[in-house]
Amino acid sequence: MAPPADLLALLQGHGQEHLLDHWDSLTQDQQDAFRAELTDLDLAEVCGYFARTAESMTHTTEKLDDKMHPLQESQCGAVGKTSDRELASYANSSYEEISKSRVGILLLAGGQGTRLGTSYPKGMYNVGLPSQKTLFQLQAERISSLQKLAEEKTGRAGKIAWYIMTSASTVKPTSDFFAEHNYFGLEAENVFIFQQGTLPCFTFEGKMILGEKGALSRAPDGNGGLYRALKQEGVLADMKGKGVKYIQLYCVDNVLVKVGDPVFMGYCLAKEAECANKVVRKGFPTEAVGITCKVEEHYQVVEYSEITQKSAEKRNKDGSLVYGAANICIHFFTFDFLERVVMFNEDSLHHHVAKKKIPYVNAEGSLVKPDKPNGIKMEKFVFDVFQFAKNFVVWECLRDEEFAPLKNAEGAPDFTPTYCRNALLALHQKWLRIAGAKLVDASGKEAAQMGSPAGENNNNDADNNNDEKDFVVMAEISPLVSYAGENLGQYKGKTLQLPLSL
């Protein structure tokens, strides 16, 4: 059976008629589904995306050194340079907003644990803590704890709205997981799970790739696909209906993340910022991280490959790196800024190119799995909206207290489950020692102080995982007991035997 003339004409107009090569081998249901997929696609828009990204691929990566400027000192706050009194003031202003239910949290949770060797959403991963809690549970309990702290400080019981962006492959298992666990103590109406969009994959020549005889090969549109999804999935409308004024965003894989960090938000409120980036200090000049700076007149995250070594090594008078504000994907937005970006600026965000090995159906109808990159996936980056900010600030936190991402399976040189587990246990040990507790093992001997696997004092590489289990102090503190080291005064002067779970 020949392909329908109208569908063939539609595709020919954009040079994509090859997509119908196997039409006559499809069942009626498959043909109907494929027709729906193709006609629902805005071919002019999607092919336009490819044309613009293809043009960018023809240029060698431009070094941005001559266009870059560090942020002004007045825009940059840091935990390590701020008094306890100021930190408390920042937190208290955030508690006021939380108590009035004006705070929302955006979670980027679209990834599957492919590199971890799992097929389920990364948020469902258990890094092996004594409690066996998953990333989702730890983060949900931090939200509960934050709501409780705000109520204790203000006398008002406000709620935090949690918006979780998933992908096509993770939306159902994520939704089911939260429902099965009763949203980990949070109200279901305050947990909004939504799905980011996808885009067709293209060959380098601009042809859309068939993943099956009657279906396109698609890939998520990057974490910057968030902004389109906020509108299309009704998230922005829900925020407006709930009266959300301030939003924090983070990635699911960071086991140490202070979800809804009141100090970070309070700093942003004090600076009247509409957009902000939480960063850690770059560990060493050649660390493979994006850095936050100004490029010409716009704020931007510049990848390490986009600057020369000379700029990477440039230092201030005090010896610190000029370009040392490393991006960790924790951002702050006012609702007004987010709404403006979604409604007026999203279309102007450029797609970035990821060259990939993409399985495809060949002319003979066989599925081919290539052994080298044969096409591109197009994606937007969540931080690309910094360029639209008029009042932008940066807050530097401590790496060993707030950043330990889960990336790889055990056996990899970095960012493994053991690394994440040790990072969290090291932090909890630190809290207990600061509170004045003494930690002893079964023989009554005081446990040696555990070095942080996520420390900043790197030498020449990022392999500072400290995976040796001999150094682990098994003391875990539930987020429901302490959000960030508070409420532990009762253990001052006490001897606590390990292993310990509070």
Provide keyphrases for this structure.
502 residues; alpha/beta; 3-stranded antiparallel beta sheet; 13 helices; 24 strands; 29% helix
Give an overview of the whole structure:
This protein has 13 helices and 24 strands. It is globular, with a radius of gyration of 24 Å. A hairpin with a 2-residue loop joins strand 8 and strand 9. With 502 residues, the chain is α/β, with parallel strands linked by helices. The strands form 8 sheets. An 8-stranded mixed beta sheet has the order 2-20-12-15-11-3-4-5, sandwiched between helices. A 3-stranded antiparallel beta sheet has the order 1-13-14, with no helix packed on it.
Question: What is the tally of helical segments?
Answer: 13
* Radius of gyration computed on alpha carbons: 24 Å
Distance between the termini: 68 Å
Q: Strand share of the residues?
A: 15-25%
Please state the average pLDDT score.
92
**Helix vs. strand class:** alpha/beta
Catalogue the unreliable spans: 454-470
Number of strands: 24
Helix content: 25-40%
Quick one: biggest sheet?
8 strands, mixed
User: Which strand order does the major sheet show?
Assistant: 2-20-12-15-11-3-4-5
What is the approximate shape? globular
